[in-house]
Write a structure and sequence with these properties.
This protein is an alpha+beta fold. It is 62% helix and 7% strand. The protein has four domains: 211 residues, no CATH class; 73 residues, PDZ domain (Pdz3 Domain, Roll), CATH 2.30.42.10; 43 residues, no CATH class; 120 residues, Alpha Horseshoe (Serine Threonine Protein Phosphatase 5, Tetratricopeptide repeat). The strands form two sheets. The protein has a four-stranded antiparallel beta sheet, with no helix packed on it. The chain has a two-stranded antiparallel ribbon with strand order 1-2. A hairpin with a 2-residue loop joins strand 3 and strand 4. Helix 18 runs parallel beside helix 20 and helix 20 packs antiparallel against helix 21. The longest helix is centred in the middle third of the chain and has 24 residues. The protein starts with a helix and ends with a helix.
Length: 484
């Protein structure tokens, strides 16, 4: 990423105003642009993104300008509030259409977005607008005399964004996120002009403490949380084998950090902790407090390993699927089938591929939007329904948002709508086993026991290795035998 950053920082007017291009893409390489809405989705863009990253002289000035425009637009999309207003979304999409069509971005749209974000107190996002505005004015001399943002407002925005970054860093440190350090460094850069030597000294101390602590890489637990409650675990993960922590348990603290008020995603990060460490847990079960531990694992590999056996590839594929890494999961299943040929593992891998994975490989934009809806639903946020509907409208062949929307409808008592969503999903992909499992649970709730058993049995036939389906089958058949 260094080559691109040097090109951006050579624009003195952008550097003098804000460092938004730097924090717009923390820990991200150039390839992270591919898949953003309107960004990096054509061969031309991909070509010069890669060329610019490698320092190729073949990249023209016009391509460099488009590259920087893409990066600045990415700043608008990554620095949005978690739940943006309708007007924010409309303006960002409007700018995105201009960028995608290689049209000049209108200062008026960016200025309106800036003032909106300031009004909504999302200062980091407002700062990314300022960076874009300044860059456009350096390209077009006709715009240089246009006073869109008062200089005093610029200084105020930088200070407010700096304090916002400090709050973000505090939260990141609480949940062991390695992003805390860059947030602190960027906050310091923005707050230097405040003249508050005591504050800068405190930030320096925090930076030094983090640098000297020798932070270990983030670990991996595999818990699926709804706020502080264990909803389920990812099959074959460390959490899956941590039998002392059960579904339905409420986790009160992790390594001495209280969990009250954390979102589901933050809760997961806190549980992930640092690699291969022992987590000290205080949980509540049936009104009793219990102290326990579990050992965190190594995070899922970024690249598919070459030295696993067939069973290990099968298990890895199951975990990759749970975190929506479908492409790598498919490759792992292919390796499992190749290594085992016509054996049991190969048979399970073949069934997993058709029963758990989307029929068509979804785009990164689709997965990103679905994930946003998923986490919002985990925290029982009403915006989840809108996000998932938006995902379905844009990518109607992608199965997962249908299933998550069915969960929302079922939890709110809208059983007919829930069943309609599942039936639409199964029309797209009749082999999607968990949808049959969900439909079974829905029918059992509607007292259609024979229908529930038939659907659960079909789910088991489609994917006999799925722990979620197997657990439901056992529960359903046990209840049925009791009724008889």
């Amino acid at each position: 990423m260094k080559a691109i950053k040097l090109k951006i920082y050579s624009l003195s007017s952008v550097l003098a105003l804000t460092i938004a291009p730097a924090f717009a893409i923390p820990k991200s390489g150039v390839l992270s642009l591919v898949g953003e809405p309107g960004v990096g989705d054509d061969d031309r863009t991909s070509r010069y993104l890669k060329a610019a990253n490698s320092g190729h002289a073949s990249v023209t000035d016009a391509e460099k300008q488009r590259l920087i425009t893409l990066l600045l637009y990415l700043g608008l999309t990554t620095n949005k509030p978690p739940i943006e207003s309708t007007q924010d979304r409309i303006l960002v999409e409007k700018v995105g259409q201009q960028v995608k069509a290689s049209q000049p971005v209108k200062l008026g749209d960016l200025s309106e977005l800036y003032h909106l974000r300031m009004k909504e107190r999302h200062y980091v996002g407002a700062l990314s607008c300022l960076s874009f505005i300044t860059y456009i004015r350096t390209l077009n001399s006709a715009d240089r005399g246009v006073s869109t943002i008062d200089p005093s407002e610029i200084a105020k925005t930088k200070l407010l964004a700096g304090h916002e970054l400090l709050e973000i860093a505090k939260t990141e440190r609480k949940t062991f996120d390695v992003n805390a350090l860059p947030h602190l460094k960027l906050a310091k850069s923005l707050l230097q002009s405040s003249g508050d030597a005591k504050l800068i000294s405190l930030i320096d101390n925090d930076i030094a403490a983090l640098q000297e602590s020798g932070q270990r890489p983030r670990g991996y637990s595999g818990f699926l949380m709804v706020a502080d409650m264990v909803e389920s675990t990812i099959q074959y993960s460390p959490a899956y084998f941590a039998k002392n922590i059960k579904e339905g348990d409420r986790i009160m603290s992790v390594d001495g950090v209280a969990t009250a008020g954390l979102t589901s995603e933050r809760m997961r990060r806190l549980l992930d902790g640092s690699e291969s460490s022992i987590a000290k847990i205080v949980l509540e079960r049936n009104g009793h407090r219990i102290n326990t531990t579990f050992k965190r694992g190594t995070p899922l590999p970024e690249k598919l390993p070459d030295d696993l056996n067939a069973r290990e590839y099968l298990q890895l594929a199951s975990q990759l699927r749970e975190v929506c890494r479908f492409e790598e999961g498919r490759l792992a299943l292919q390796k499992a089938q190749t290594l085992d040929q016509n054996g049991e593992v190969a048979s399970l891998a073949k069934k997993m591929l058709t029963a758990r994975f989307p029929r068509q490989e979804p785009s990164k934009q689709a997965v990103k939007l679905y994930s946003a809806g998923y986490w919002l639903n985990q925290d029982n946020r009403p915006e989840a329904e809108r996000i998932l509907k938006q995902c379905i409208a844009a990518w109607p062949e992608f199965e997962l948002p249908y299933r998550q929307l069915a969960v929302i409808y079922r939890n709110s008592g809208r059983l007919t709508e829930s069943q309609d969503m599942l039936e639409k999903l199964l029309k797209l992909n009749p082999d999607y086993a968990r949808a049959w499992c969900d439909l079974s649970q829905l029918k059992q709730e509607k007292t259609d026991y024979s229908g529930a058993v038939a659907d659960a049995k079909h789910a088991m036939e489609l994917d006999p290795d799925d722990a979620i389906i197997a657990k439901w089958w056992h529960q359903l058949t046990s209840e049925k035998s009791k009724k008889q």
